[in-house]
Every structure is written in C-alpha cells, then in structure tokens.
Amino acid sequence: KDDSSQPLNEHKDKLLDGLLTAGFDERSCLSRYESALYRKASPHKPSSYLLSRLRSYEALHKSCGPYTESYNKTVEKLRSGSKVGPTDCNYVVWIAFSGLGNRILTLASAFLYALLTNRVLLVDRGTDMADLFCEPFPEMSWLLPLDFPLNQFNKFDQKFPQCHGYMLKNSILNNSKTSLPLFLYLHLVHDYDDHDKLFFCDQYQALLQKVPWLIMKTDNYFVPSLFLIHSFEEELNNLFPDKGTVFHHLGRYLFHPSNPVWGLITRYYQAYLANADERVGIQIRVFDIGTGPFQHVLDQILACSLKEKLLPEVNNQEPILNPTGNRKSKAVLLTSLSSGYFEKIRNIYWEYPTVNGEVISIYQPSHEEYQQTEKQIHNRKAWAEMYLLSLTDKLITSSWSTFGYVAQSLGGLKPWILKKPENKTVPDPPCVRDMSMEPCFHAPPFYDCKAKTGTDTGAIVPHVRHCEDMSWGLKLV
Ligand code: GDP
C-alpha cells in the first residue's frame, strides 16, 4: 500500500536520492516534494557524478538564465546582428513541438545535450508548458522570455537559411570561426535529412560548440544516438553507469506537475488506486485509421493480460465462485482516447467471477476521443494520466507511443508492450516484455561518421539496441 499518510518532512526519499535540492518554495509546486509519497522508492540510484553535474548545472543556469547580465549581453548581440565573439554563456533553446509525450521526451533530450555541452537550456513555453510543469531549477526560470528576439519559431524549418543541415548542404558553413553565425537552427524532426543528421557526428559537434545559440526543434528522444558520439562517451559513462536509467533520472528531476495537474493526479490516485493491493496500468494508443474500439485490440489486451498473468481469468460457467481466502484487490488504470475498451473489460469482471477470487476494478480517468494539443484541460489530463500510469506496479503499453514511454520511465517500469497488430489480427505473442524502461528513438541516423557510409547504429555498442516495438528504432538498455 502507499504511504501517503506519512508526514512529508519525515519522509526519507523526499529529495529522490539527491536528484532534487531542498529549498524550493513547497506550496508553489506541491508535487516536487510530495511525489515520494505516491511513488515507491526507486531501486535505481543516480550516480554521485550525475548529482554533482546537476548541482553545477543549476549554478550555471542561475548565472546565465533569463535577464542575467550574461543573458542580456548575448541577446543584445543577437538583436544587433553582430559577429560572433566570445560569450560568457551558451544556450540551447527548445521549441515546443508535437504531442505532450513527445515534448516531454525531447525536452529531456535537450537537457542532456545542454549538460554535455555546458549550455543553458531555455524552454519555449508554447501554449501550455508553463501551465503543466513547475520550474525545475532553483531561483531562475527555464522559460525563454517572451521578448527573446528570435521567437517566431514557426518560421524555423528545414529550409530556414540558418538551419544547420541546410547550411551544410549548401556549403555555407565552415569551421573558420569568423564566419560562424551567432545562432543556428537544429532541425531534428522525424522528417530530417542526411545533412540535418550530421548533428550526430563528432566533427560537427566540434563546430556547433562555437555557436552561442542553438535553437532546436525535435519530436524524437534522441538520447540513444548521443551515446554513439565519441566525444560524449566518457562523460555519459560517468553520468549514467547504469545506461538504461537516463530518462528515469532526468525525467524525475525535470518534470514536476504544476499544482492544478497535481490535484488531478492525487485526487484520482486517492479515490481509485491507493487502497488496492496491486495497481496495473494499461495504456491503449491505437494508430490505426478509423474509429475504435476494435475487436482485435480488445482481444490483444486480454490475451496479453491473461498470458502474462497481469489479470486473472474469469469463469463464465458459474455465476458465483467461492474462492478460498484470496481476496486480493487489483485496480486497473486504463488510459485511452476512447471509452470502448474500458467498458468491455470492466463488464467482463462484473459479469463473471475471477477464478482465483481476486477483486478487479477498472478505471479510466478520461476519454478525450481525439488529440487536442491546443487545449489546456486536455493537456493537463494527458499529463496527469501519464503520471498516474507511472504510479502503477505493472504496466502494459502500446507500441510506438511516447505517452507510454513517459509513464514507464518515470515509474521505473519495464512494460509489457502490445505488439503492433497487422491486418487487424492479434499478434502472436500479443505482447513482449521490454528490455529496459528507456524510451525508443524512432528516427535515428544510420550513418558511420568516420567511414562516411551507412551503418547499423543498433549494432555498434551493447547498450544501444533496436527497440522491441519498432525494429529500426534505437534504445538504451
Ligand atoms: P504519442 O502520439 O502516443 O506518441 O503521444 P503524445 O503524447 O506525443 O501525443 C498524443 C496526444 O494525444 C497526447 O499528448 C494527448 O493529447 C492525446 N492522448 C493520447 N492518448 C491519450 C490518453 O490515453 N489519455 C489522454 N488524456 N490523452 C491522450
């Protein structure tokens, strides 16, 4: 059972093994220090080196963040279009782009890139970033000021004149320092081309290191490919001796639900999940065209749950069974855009007794029907649901979904992944256990920067492999 009755200040894990620092105002962001009351202590400890780098990042952020003297100076250079010269601080600006799960993963990727390159991360607030998340760094905002001179990010695309890949393609960029621009746009969206992908090569990283402002747009968790960049190797080894924990640590460090979202999470948890003996999460995301619910998806979820013993069988012959002793309760948290699967599964466990006497309750917080990324309460619910899934003990997720990735890595859970169905039939096996809790990078480069040829980037080092749910994707294990 959860220990949310324990007084917070007596709780040992409040700072998540040192990932978080004390001293934030608790009321402005209740989730920061209360998360430990809802989540089991993680068996994965952050390295002391990661902790020391987070503390030094916080100091850097404080001295370079919005409207500091250093920030003002470099912004002034951007405004006046002056030539690049030495700057005290260098920055990476993350552009809000794509669905919420994608945004959470890319923001963590951008943060790791900032750590590796001694840059300061600033966040384009888009429509709702400030509404959904607390500030993660002490005493200094991570939000990009609204008066930042280059804030028309919708103009930034693959053909933008200061797009890194575009400049390489047209041989506009070279390494002589005088001709380097003050800022570059990095296009790391799934449709990026071979020139954009040179971002992942050492020689281009050396050049980028000299550019004070990097503006990044991406919808991919590109962390696995950072592990293949030679110049980052040693640092990454020190930061993450246990490689399959990158998002688990960075995600819990960065993403604290804002108070309105924390209200959604804690009220739901206490009402429906806290008192169960075990919590099972089922995340359903169907990428098929047409409106569900689909019979084959329902069959697949049930086949997976029963085969892996995540849910018990029912007896549809007898109306009542008298099981011996076992009255274990299992609460199932189901998330989906539609309510069809929920109703069918709930009815099964209402209409028939379980063969082992377990008491099964099924809950679904919302059914929003379709993705509505521009709507505030929609995104609050999406974030709350990802977080609630991360509080379960066992998790079933859908292939290809970043929504599920966020839940599994925050929760430190290796999920059972529902294989992507072909031709509307249940795959055999219906689900497989994931190799690690890390998210999958859906659009990795397949390029050997030294040999200048194509290569299988999933076969270079043992800790970067192809994903279970997407054969060409890459993930850390
Ligand atoms: P992905 O498309 O599955 O990789 O995940 P994203 O989070 O990037 O985009 C999907 C978006 O659709 C979410 O951010 C939500 O806006 C919405 N969505 C998808 N599934 C659910 C769900 O189960 N619950 C809620 N509340 N929203 C969902």
UniProtKB/TrEMBL annotation:
UniProt keyword list: Cell wall biogenesis/degradation, Glycoprotein, Glycosyltransferase, Golgi apparatus, Membrane, Transferase, Transmembrane, Transmembrane helix
Protein name per the record: Fucosyltransferase
Taxonomic lineage of the native organism: Eukaryota, Viridiplantae, Streptophyta, Embryophyta, Tracheophyta
Signal peptide: none
Function recorded in the entry: May be involved in cell wall biosynthesis.
Membrane topology: Single-pass type II membrane protein
Primary enzyme class: transferase
An annotated Gene Ontology molecular function: galactoside 2-alpha-L-fucosyltransferase activity
Family to which the UniProt record says this protein belongs: Belongs to the glycosyltransferase 37 family.
Primary site of residence: Golgi
Statement: the UniProt record of this protein carries the keyword Transmembrane: yes
